[in-house]
Structures are given as C-alpha cells and as structure tokens.
Design goal:
This protein has one helix and two strands; from the N terminus they run E-E-H. By secondary structure, it is mostly loops.
Length: about 200
C-alpha cells in the first residue's frame, strides 16, 4: 500500500511524523507491504518501531531517527539519509543501493544478508558494524568511523577510505585493489588473506 503526502502546487507541505507512520501501520493490512516511496520524513522520530519490509526508496530521511528500530528487509534504495540514525537497529536484509548516508550513524548494526552499495558514506559513524561480505566498491567513506568493524571478504575496490578510522577492523579476505587508504588509522587492522597486495592500494 502506497502512502502519499499533502501537496500544494506540487510542493510538500511538511514532513511526515511518527504519528503518521503509526497511523499507516495500524490501517495497513498485515499481508500488504507498506510503501513510503518518495516521501519526506526529515527529522522524524521513528525509533523503537517495527518497520520490517517497509519501502522507503527515494524518500527524504535527512536526520530521521531509526535508533533500535526493526527495519529487517526494508528498502532504502536511493533515499537521502544524510545524518540519519540507525544505531543498534535490526538492519539485516535491508537494501540501501544508491542511498546517501553521509554523516549517518549506524553504530553496532549487523548488515547480514543486506544489499548495501550506497552512493556515499562520507563521515558516517559505523563503530562495531558487521559488513562482512558487503559490496562497497567505489563507495566514498572518507573520514568515516569504522573502528572495530568487520569487513571480512568485503569488496572495497576503488573505495575511498582516506582519513577513516579503521582501528581494530577485520579486513580478512577483503578486496582492496585501488582502495584509497591515505591518512586512515590502520592500527591493529587485520589484513590477513586480503585479495590484493597492499602496494596496489593508496596508503600514503
């Protein structure tokens, strides 16, 4: 079921709120997929909610708070999620292809079985995140905080991690061809079994 926003001459009057989402969830049959495609939830408090399989693709989610929400299997493709918070949420199985996640916070999230490859993670806060087997090729993660995160067997080909905090990260088996690691904090990083020799990356 697709939900819409009130508009005047094509312009959205105001972002949707938590109450709007609760109303939509209550009135949508359980056998329907709830679709908020292309809607504006900027700054909304959607924390601690059950939003499994909801479609937020192409939506404006700038500064939206999903902290500790269950967004299992939700779709965020090409959504604008700058400054959004998903800390400690259930994010397994989500799709975020082409999403803008600059300065977003995803602390201690487990992206198991997810389709990521966002367009940008510039300055994102991702401490203790599980990104094992993720495809992050070409993604801009400049100055992101990935301290203590797991990126085992992930593709970081052509990705930019310049100035990123990678202390304690597990990059076992990761693909690092042409990856930009200039100025990154590489203290105690596990480079075991990486598929690319480190001299093929940009470290200095």
């Amino acid at each position: 079921k697709q939900w819409y926003q009130r508009r005047v001459r094509g312009k959205v009057l105001e972002p949707l709120t938590r109450d709007d989402v609760i109303r939509a969830v209550i009135t949508t049959p359980s056998n329907y997929i709830l679709r908020f495609r292309g809607l504006d939830f900027s700054g909304a408090d959607l924390s601690n909610m059950d939003l499994r399989h909801v479609n937020f693709s192409h939506s404006k989610l700038v500064g939206t708070d999903f902290t500790k929400s269950d967004v299992y299997g939700a779709t965020f493709d090409k959504a604008d999620m700058r400054g959004a918070r998903l800390d400690e949420g259930h994010v397994a199985g989500v799709s975020m292809e082409g999403a803008i996640l600059d300065n977003a916070s995803m602390v201690r999230c487990n992206f198991e079985d997810s389709k990521l490859r966002p367009s940008s993670l510039l300055g994102a806060q991702m401490k203790g995140v599980n990104l094992e087997n993720s495809n992050l090729a070409g993604v801009n993660m400049r100055v992101a905080n990935l301290r203590g995160s797991c990126l085992k067997n992930s593709s970081l080909k052509g990705a930019c991690l310049a100035g990123a905090d990678l202390e304690g990260c597990d990059l076992n088996g990761a693909e690092l061809y042409n990856t930009n690691l200039r100025g990154a904090n590489l203290t105690n990083v596990n480079f075991e079994d990486i598929t690319t020799a480190l001299h093929m990356t940009h470290v200095t």
